[in-house]
């Protein structure tokens, strides 16, 4: 995952200095060599099933106040999450989270015509793409402050699986996919047409079923500030929509492909697993 930070902040000003190609981030960003780095390969047989509340999604079903903008930042395409039309930010609680986490942004990681591009892998399987919905703890006023703390951020990792025939319709995702041809050049942006809510991005995803662990941002500076929630059941996305990512250009005017970080060592961390249909299980 990456963060959309205001210009002039140190994480933002360094964004143009790194690349996914031949990446050796730890030289310039020592925390990228830390012990709680992301993404990881999730070995399902090694996870711990524990009782925990389901994630609760508040104001996810309320449309965001426009304009909602899709942008090409040179490393991904991202959507800034605005407050909803009722003036409140969508937020999540539950799981292993302690407190309220407000949604701040959405971005994507993908592969190429010959490779898959999710960041997390599950039992060594990589999916075609991965969407990240980034949330900030309300304990901290800004993302710049939140990334200094282990409980600063919570991110939802949602897998995409490309399919020739898709019998599901994701209205929010389709609005984003429809606008991808408008953000092919680096630093281009475009408003998303019509109203969009975060629940429209989740479709029929089983949000009661997820893995969670303590990790980091997956781009420099790799701050170890993230509680990850990775959903193992992918959303089926049409191949025609997935192919729209292939025309996007990076800051060097080259095709933006394989914009994912390799999996990192789990080290001494534990990955927890939640499965169930009701409030507790």
TrEMBL record:
Residue stretches making up the Alpha-carbonic anhydrase domain: 16-275
InterPro entries the UniProt entry points to: CA_dom (IPR001148), CA_dom_sf (IPR036398), Carbonic_anhydrase_a-class (IPR023561), Carbonic_anhydrase_a-class_CS (IPR018338)
Keyword tRNA-binding: no
Keywords from the named record: Lyase, Metal-binding, Zinc
Gene Ontology CC: cytoplasm
Pfam family, one: Carb_anhydrase
Stretch forming the signal peptide: none
Identification of the protein by name: Carbonic anhydrase
Organism, scientific name: Stomoxys calcitrans (Stable fly)
Gene: 106082203
